[in-house]
Amino acid sequence: MSFVDWISEPVNWVYAAIGLVVLYSAFRVVTVKNVVHAALFLVASLAGTAGLFLILGAEFVAWVLVLVYIGAVIVLFLFGIMITRAPTGKDENLDSQKKVWPAILSIGVFVAMAGSSISAFESQLINDVGEPTSTEVIGEALLGRFVIPFEVVSFVLLAALIGGITIARRDLSPAEEEERHAV
Amino acid sequence: MLLNQFLILAAAMFALGVYGLLVRRNIVLILLSVELMLNAVNINLVAFESYLRSSEAIGQVFAIFVITVAAAEVGIGLAIVLMIFRNRRSSNVDDLSLMRW
């Protein structure tokens, strides 16, 4: 498929625009000098990803991403940033000084992954998405074929909930424990 | 739409997440880079689902599982960050070198 053919489909303009937003925001997440800005750039990246999911016809996953990731996980991150009193202004010592080897490694990872996907899937097309995937199909899969992973993930969430509360509890001194139990 | 355009985008995002994981010194920023990597995996899964078009939307179901597990992991990770900050008053991973050789 030539580049002219590719660029003449409107879907691909939308893809290019969203893709630029996603990659630029991801780049700024890892390079910006301000902790809060990094979290907000991640919000932009995730919102762009939700847009990509909508192009691919995955409506339910897109809105689950917005709801759970942007709506809960990023808010949790911002709480964590505030509670650990990270300097909310420009901070100079956020990055380590040795950046060459990580950069080479990440470029190597990208070349390996992109190279293998290009050699495996050269010019395979995603044919017209047509109707977006209905939530009914996903619901039937989650409670049909994938009911065991679904229940196991519920256990994972329960364990994370209990574990989070236990880890973050304030340790009471013995005197305070006495007082608590006496009441 | 080519399949590769989504896979290469996801690969780039994953590589940026790896770079962030190795370079950043604040724990919260390291967790943010892990979220970037998980997001790249989600793009891959949904792109393959659109390409293969299975009858049960398997790729999308897996993407939902990944999002759920990522949310659980962030909860625990931030609880640990809280405890570290309470004990050490600093959220720089260079200060957590007690068990290094």
Please characterize this protein's 3D structure.
The complex is a heterodimer of chains A (183) and B (101). By secondary structure, chain A is mostly helical. Chain A folds into two domains: 1-91, Four Helix Bundle (Hemerythrin (Met), subunit A), CATH 1.20.120; 134-183. Chain A has helices at residues 3-7, 10-31, 35-55, 59-83, 100-121, 135-143, 147-167, 174-182. Chain A starts with a helix and ends with a helix. Chain B has 101 residues and is mainly α. Chain B has one domain: Helix Hairpins, CATH 1.10.287.3510. In chain B, helix 1 packs antiparallel against helix 2 and helix 2 runs antiparallel to helix 3. The N and C termini of chain B lie far apart (51 Å). Classes of the chains: A mainly alpha (183), B mainly alpha (101). At the A-B interface, helix 2, helix 3, helix 4, helix 5 and helix 6 of A face helix 1, helix 2 and helix 3 of B.
Summary?
The complex is a heterodimer of chains A (183) and B (101). Chain A is an all-alpha fold.
List its traits.
heterodimer, A: 183 residues, mainly alpha, Four Helix Bundle (Hemerythrin (Met), subunit A), 2 domains, 8 helices, 73% helix, 0% strand, extended, B: 101 residues, Helix Hairpins, 3 helices, elongated
Main structural class of chain B = mainly alpha
Q: Indicate the percent of residues in helices of chain B.
A: over 70%
CATH topology of chain B: Helix Hairpins
Second rung of CATH, namely the architecture of chain B: Orthogonal Bundle
Which pair of chains has the greatest number of interface residues, and how are they split between the two chains?
A-B, 88 and 69 residues
What is the straight-line distance between the termini of chain B?
A: 51 Å
